[in-house]
Amino acid sequence: MGQDTTRRAPIGVFDSGVGGLTVVRALRSALPGEDIVYLGDTARVPYGSKSPRTVERYSLACQQFLLDRGVKLVMIACNTASANALPALTSASPVPVIGAVLPGASTALATTVARHVGVIGTLGTVRSNAYAHAIFARDPGVVLSSLACPLFVPLAEEGWVDDEIAELVARRYLVQLFAKDPAIDTLVLGCTHYPLLRDVIARVARSLAHHEVFVVDSARAMADSAREVLGSSLLSIDNRRTAPGRLDCFATDTSRLDELATRFLGEPITGFELVDL
Ligand code: DGL
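That is the input. Now the predicted structure with D-glutamic acid docked in place:
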């Protein structure tokens, strides 16, 4: 591919399901002119409760699907896949690969004043210790506490994101985190689904901590990181162009797709193409 063809190539984003559309949403606001190819592995979701080996195998298949479509950058929207499969994905890809963990960890380090950070995610993300590795490699003095919050995923999918049930679940989880470390001043939302619950999580965290808790949305951090990577490798298209980029969506199963996808993207979606990996 020539430099110009490469610039016009799409960005590839994959996730275990439709939650990764939170990353597409952030990406479209940061880089509106870029074309995006999205793959949701909806036939095999969730990844969060599966073993690292299985997550790695599924993730490699997702990435290959995107590479076969000529993407110039791969974004692993799924935190569980990022936490368990980044090394394998990076070594299998001829184009840059951005996971969710490093951007989220770096933003947390740039944000925390107390140097007490909390991370919440799926069981697979928390068990991998990937956020701990990323944070301690950059600042060994940070105090890090993490907690798996699996019920946040179905809550986000049901759209129960800011009612009394969401509040109760958030309190039940976060009380454990703040009991471990009441000095947490920065909380990383280490899962595709959690940005939908951002308001309730922020409110409950603040009330438990009795001080301001900054909430880091890894979807937004990933979009910033994509802008940097494309800019530094001269691969961005001209984002001043007026036409918005295309969004082509693929999924491995179609059940509940349109309803869920619209919820995570924040706008109606034109349709997914069903594919087999
Ligand atoms: N996409 C997953 C993540 O961000 C959440 C859903 C799942 O368990 O597959 O970790």
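The longest helix spans residues 52-68.
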